[in-house]
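Request from the bench team (R.T.):
"We need a structural guess for the complex before ordering more zinc ion. Sequence and SMILES attached. Just send the tokens back."

Command: build protein-zinc ion structure.
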Amino acid sequence: MTKRKRPVGNFIKFMGTAGARHVVSQQLRSSAGIWVEYAGTRLLIDPGPGTLLKVYKARPTLKPSQLDAIILTHRHVDHSCDTNVMIEAMTQGGTLRRGRVFAPRDALEEEPVIYQYVRDYVEEIKILQSGERYQVGAIQFETPVRHRHGVETYGLKLSLGSVTVSLIADTAFFPEIPSWYQAEVMILNTVRLYPTGPGEWVHLCIDDARRIIQQAQPRLGILTHFGVSLLKADPKAVASQLTEETGIKVIAASDGLVLKLDW
Ligand SMILES: [Zn+2]
Ligand SMILES: [Zn+2]
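Reply to R.T.: structure attached below.
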């Protein structure tokens, strides 16, 4: 008789869904990034403020010491604040040289958000570049294009077996987004209810999300990374309106939401 293997979880967990300075600094939503687990490979994307605590509070449990990689889409504090402490957690306080870190060049060079001394703890620090592909265990991902967002920023397109999942990280809208990020599941950092005003950080708004979803036709669209205006409007209501308008299922992420990938 063969022993049955413990099932391996394939899921994406939204550890946080906060997306703008006020929402992050008041913790109106958590800012703990996204945990991806596929075929035994584990990634943490954008560990913002509070990630270490949220990871330890997660149920079922998540173990930072089992992470295979930490990926930063960009250096803004809501995406990078807990990077150093998560590297320490991934490497058991630097006692085990393991894991990899992926980040844009400007997160590592002038005014780095990753300290020099923790860089020695990991197996590799890899600089993200436009149009590159990367492999971490069972997960392949690419960074199709540099975003329009103040600091060097990349979104991700993940291949999780037969499922493709894209994460459109912080950016202003540009016409190539729908084709670069076309995937079965598309996660959109949709900070704003209305378009960006003068002097504000550039981010996607609901009109942009609608346009991207209509053009890319994913199987599922997920809104996350909410600013104050979107929270006030109720992300769930906004998402169901987008579903009606586009005919494509759109949901709003909530803190702790788990998206199972076994379909
Ligand atoms: Zn952000
Ligand atoms: Zn940003």
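Two things stood out. The chain has one domain: 11-254. Residues 19, 76, 78-79, 170, 225 surround zinc ion (ligand 1) (CB under 6 Å).
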